[in-house]
Amino acid sequence: MSSAFSFSEWPPALSEDQLEALTLYATTYALAHGLLYLSPVKPQPPIPNSAIHAPLSVFPSPFPRRLFSLARRLQSTYNILYARIATDVEFLDKVMGSVEGVGKVDDFVGQLWTGWKALRDEGTAQPLHLGLFRSDYLLHAGAPGEPLSLKQVEFNTISSSFGTLSQRTAALHRYLYASTAYYNVFPDMKPADFPPNDTTAGLVEGLAAAHAAYNFKEAKILFVVQAGERNVFDQRLLEYELLEKHSIHVIRQTFDELALSASVDPATRALSIGGTAQISTVYFRAGYTPTDYPTAAHYATRFLLERSAAIKCPSIALQLAGGKKVQQVLTQPGVLERFLGGAVPAAQIAELRGSWMGMWGLDADQGVPRARAGAAGLVLKPQREGGGNNVYKEAIPPFLDALPAPERQAWIAMELIVPPAGTGNYLVRAGSDAEKVDVVSELGIFGWALFGGQHGGVQEKEVGWLVRTKGKDSNEGGVATGFSVLDSLLLV
Ligand code: ADP
Ligand code: MG
Ligand code: MG
User: Fold this and answer.
1) DSSP character for 22?
2) Is-contact 239 250, C-beta < 8 A?
3) Distance, CA of 131 to CA of 461 (rounded, Å)
4) Domain that holds residue 383
5) Which leading EC class covers this enzyme (predicted)?
6) Are residues 326 and 385 in the same domain?
């Protein structure tokens, strides 16, 4: 498409009839292709019997081709970087541990770290770690006249979701284009502007690589899930692909179920479920938030899995590596070079650093006064995942007033990314008409890495992408939290 694309002229205008027809095409396609959430209505008996389409956008969102290429290119470097962080015990102890690091003041991080430390002291049975990652970005407009740049929001190392649904959303927009050509309201749109998205096969390839490395054909993969999860189709689609393409069976259980069913062989440390099925790989779609651990027994179950010889996706080390504190410490001089120097060309390291906003710890010298003074352009983040935990702009000063000084160590300040203004889209939530709103779109790039073996090598790959779009007045994103809708890309 032409380089003269104007973000503020998106989306193209539709008549009411066109919008209604497109909404019908879109929701029908979504329902027919598993772009779904379980219905919020609890079934009786508790066997799911209805679903709603996932929230979605009618148009894909424009994204500069060169920045999409950049994001994909960066993924391999990020895969290697986080593999190296997760295997640097000394670094993780210092940054996230309970003696010197965040674990001192953040109970959740402290619990995970303490459990991990005890297991390390005992001796680990499985050197390999698997990561299914998602690196998230926003477009940054910067100063007037500057070209748009790509800036990282965060790097997820646990429960990175919406891989399979994002593949379906990309297919949805390709379908709308093919079937209606979007009524030719934007004649510049070309098939080549809709990039392919094969995230399902890619993520499953990562799980299958771990399974193969475990080297016991009859073993199964364990999905650890939350009770009452409504985003089940996103997970099940991975399960179906594992069986269909790789003949690998999946067992799906919650921490509560695993407390009764999981056991570790004292001699071999093989993990079994129900006394029979041996597990090659534990894939966590739970365990990333303190509410997944309401009692000490839930932590005990996590540590039982961790102690086993199964490959964990992620290991506790890799989960801790995904902390926002780690993201901030990486921006300090020399830290990135320490992890990647020698392994990755300097130009690639510079490119990675170029994707970062300014960050500092609230416990740094002048950390709090700086955050207070710059509040209008900042977000504060704790060591949490899953959305809804950050403190933005004008809420920052009163928050700082109330924050006990020791807890500053658990929070980072991050400069706000400023996306291009005036971009809109038509958003559709189940049961409502399409709504035209000004939006911000967040790109996620998926990748996996299998690492930790004797030779220090990292097997890794970039495997696809996701776009989540939210109303511009919402600070937070998150589809599961109800702020965002699933979207895809139109390269411009
Ligand atoms: P979580 O791990 O809970 O998803 P994030 O760091 O992704 O935490 O923050 C949640 C949301 O807050 C993001 O999806 C994004 O919409 C917004 N956000 C986070 N950091 C920034 C930033 N630096 N600039 C602008 N928005 C941000
Ligand atoms: Mg996020
Ligand atoms: Mg996150």
Assistant:
1) H
2) yes
3) 11
4) 358-416
5) ligase
6) no
- Cβ(138)–Cβ(64) below 8 Å: no
DSSP code string of 91-119: HHHHHH-SSSSGGGT-HHHHHHHHHHHHH
Residues within 5 Å of ion ligand 3 by Cβ?
154, 156, 385
Count up the domains in the chain and report the number: 2
> Is the CB of 140 inside a 6 Å radius of any atom of ligand 1?
no
**Is 156 a residue of the active site?**
yes
Phi-psi region of 274 (alpha: psi -120 to 50; beta: other; left: phi over 0): left
Task: Flag the least confident range among 85-94, 142-151, 207-216, 348-357.
Answer: 142-151
Q: Are residues 77 and 189 in the same domain?
A: yes
pLDDT score at 78: 98
Q: How far is the CA of 446 from the centre of ligand 2 (A)?
A: 13
Do 385 and 438 lie in a common domain? Answer: no
In the chain, what percentage of residues exceed pLDDT 70?
Answer: 99
Ligand closest in space to the Cα of 415: 1
Domain assignment of residue 2, yes or no? no
For 173, left (φ over 0), alpha (ψ -120 to 50), or beta? Answer: alpha
8: helix, strand or coil:
helix
In this structure, are 487 and 412 located in the same domain?
no
Residue 1 lies in a domain: no
Give which of 37, 60, 67, 1 is closest to 479, Cα–Cα. 37
Q: Which residue type occupies 19?
A: L
Question: pLDDT tens-digit profile of 288-317?
Answer: 999 999 999 999 999 999 999 999 999 999
pTM, to two decimals: 0.97
Whether 138 and 263 share a structural domain: yes
Distance 138 CA to ligand 1 centre (A): 9
Q: Which of these, 18, 1, 4, 6, lies nearest to 426 by C-alpha position?
A: 18
Burial 5-19 (b: 16+ CB within 10 A, else e): eebeebbbebeeebb
Q: Which of 232, 135, 154, 133 lies closest to 480 in space, CA to CA? A: 232
Q: Which residues contact 395 (CB under 8 A, 6 or more apart)?
A: none
HEC-encoded secondary structure of 254-316: CHHHHHHHEEECCCCCCEEECCCEEEEEEEECCCCCHHHCCCHHHHHHHHHHHHCCCEEECCH
Decide if pLDDT at 235 tops 70. yes
